[in-house]
Amino acid sequence: MKIKDIRVIVTSPGQNFVTVKIITDEGIYGVGDATLNGRELAVATYLEKHVVPCLLGRDASRIEDIWQYLYRGGYWRRGPVTMAAISAIDMALWDIKAKACNMPLYQLLGGASREKIMIYTHAHGSTIEETVEAVVQKKEEGFQAIRVQCGVPGLDRIYGISKLNSGPRPDGGFLPDEDIWSTEKYLPFIPKVFERLRDVLGWDTHLLHDAHHRLSPIEAARLGKDLEPYRLFWLEDAVAAEDQENFRHVRNHTTTPLAVGEVFNSIWDARDLIREQLIDYIRTTSCHAGGVTGLRRIFDYAAMHNVKTGCHGPGDVSPITMGVNTHLGLWVPNYGIQEFADYCPQVMDVFPSTWTHNKGFMHPGDVPGHGVDIDEELAARFPYERAYLPVNRLEDGTLWHW
Ligand code: GCO
Ligand code: MG
């Protein structure tokens, strides 16, 4: 089965998505997600100019060889742009292989290890009471795990929440928004949010929190300690993780479980964290960390070291990634949890999907392949809109981690 054509499709049904569609000479096709929020066209160009011409005519069944060809063969290894491109090609090739075998992807991986996968959703508010209300509502909808973010008194915006599916911005969307941040205001406040939440909810709901890389190791250690009484499921991105050593400081001081990995794109970003058990959950996701092939490698390594999975799944990765992650989650022995931010109906119309969610759990469906497609005609009606993630500054103007 030879690769006959590869299309790179950029569409913006409320959010920019980059999709790869690989078509074979036998008529079977597969799709993959190459979305890199705020840098979409870099990946699309990398694919179109450098990757697609090298793959036409190749045997579509040789997934591992193609992965190595693009990774090792490119000489310049890793990096978010390259790895998003490789991820999409890999996802599309696994889709093709599973369709050719007439199996849902999770069967090819080794079959289901569970009946369904637990997901976590988001809840936030600008005050503690608004946040409590939002969390209670998600609990009533049936979610057992909820990521909670709360506005910090003295800071304008609820941090770490990107404006998903909000369409073009009034300013034309050409420049990133600028947020203001103060760790001094955040650190003493956030434990109060969880204290109140435990009062209201009791102990049978999993609560998660995302510090979005903003703390220094010693600040993160303090936060982890202060949150211990409220038994979080995890504290996410407590520190920036370019330096994996940062996590050792945090780990040494707190029993709050730690999660990281949404910005990682290969096993090398997480090697020390996993090998030395400095984290509890690895959050790499299929469209950024090498597709099925890349994630499977990371997950197996994590399983050897008591680290569970917790894939990134915000609204700014496409439903294809959610589908692939759900297959991986149904199979992987060391499953932890999957993030689920849901999509507006327009996005789901462009990406018809067989995955379903119900009362806090997902299932990928049982059709051959990964179960997500793209409606190309509809996609063409939503052209790319330039958009960025916000940037972040301290109150004195210093550029900070967003
Ligand atoms: C999360 C994330 C997102 C990211 C976004 C960047 O945990 O879901 O932190 O909200 O900020 O995906 O594109
Ligand atoms: Mg996050």
Automatic annotation (TrEMBL):
Domain Mandelate racemase/muconate lactonizing enzyme C-terminal residues, every copy: 128-257
SUPFAM superfamilies (alphabetical): Enolase C-terminal domain-like, Enolase N-terminal domain-like
Gene3D superfamilies, A to Z: Enolase-like C-terminal domain, Enolase-like, N-terminal domain
Molecular function terms from GO: magnesium ion binding; mannonate dehydratase activity
GO biological process terms, semicolon-separated: amino acid catabolic process; carbohydrate catabolic process
InterPro entries: D-mannonate_dehydratase-like, DgoD-like, Enolase-like_C_sf, Enolase-like_N, Enolase_C-like, Mandel_Rmase/mucon_lact_enz_CS, Mandelate_racemase_C, Mandelate_racemase_N_dom
Protein family (similarity comment): Belongs to the mandelate racemase/muconate lactonizing enzyme family. GalD subfamily.
Classification via NCBIfam families: ManoateDhtManD, PRK15072.1
Full protein name: D-galactonate dehydratase family protein
Source organism of the structure: Halocynthiibacter halioticoli
